[in-house]
Amino acid sequence: MTPHLRPACLADLGTITRFRLQRTSWLAARGSDQWTRAGRGLPIETFVRSVAHAVRNGETWIAEVDGEAAGTITVNDRADENLWSPGELADAVIVHYMIVDLRFAGNRIGESLLAHAATLARLQHRSWVRLDAWTTNKDLHAYYRRSGFRLSRIAGPEATGPSRALFERRTATWPLTHPLTLSTTETTRFTLNPTPTWSLPPHPFVRPHPGVIPEPGPAPTP
What we know:
By secondary structure, the chain is α+β, with helices and mostly antiparallel strands. Helix content is 29%, strand content 20%. The protein has a 7-stranded mixed sheet with strand order 1-2-3-4-5-7-6.
């Protein structure tokens, strides 16, 4: 299955939010606290504002299969404080909010999205693709290892968030081409320059979300 990639637009926020809520419920049913209130995950309203900010800056992408949204990824050069060093950030793109619709699980959509992050890293002349994974989600850690990433470290106590498992993979380890397809129009809508262009305010909030979206609660006890 070959996904088609396009830049996300604000009209995709509902779809991306659905991905997040769907996956949070799926994780909670399996005993994980990832993205839940109990696990100190981002409130859904905060998540929506953060993604909206990334969409406006051309950092978020949608993978489509036969015209249907199958997954999403955000790629930029920012991370939460005290995770990566300034030097590590300067030579990497950072992956955020990679979520695959459960209907398309098992079709290597995530692999294709990560390959696209590597393409963006090449365009930026950056040597690494880096990400932070939920600290307690060992299944997620195993997924990234299978995807060619290595665990760099678990961030120290100065990084207070729930996502402190730091993974990285060298950009050069991906082939020069990957299964994602981009039309000429879409390629020109998001062009990275050899020098960093992501100069954004550190605070991800841009405006209040118009409504309240229910967030899944704590993971059920066995």
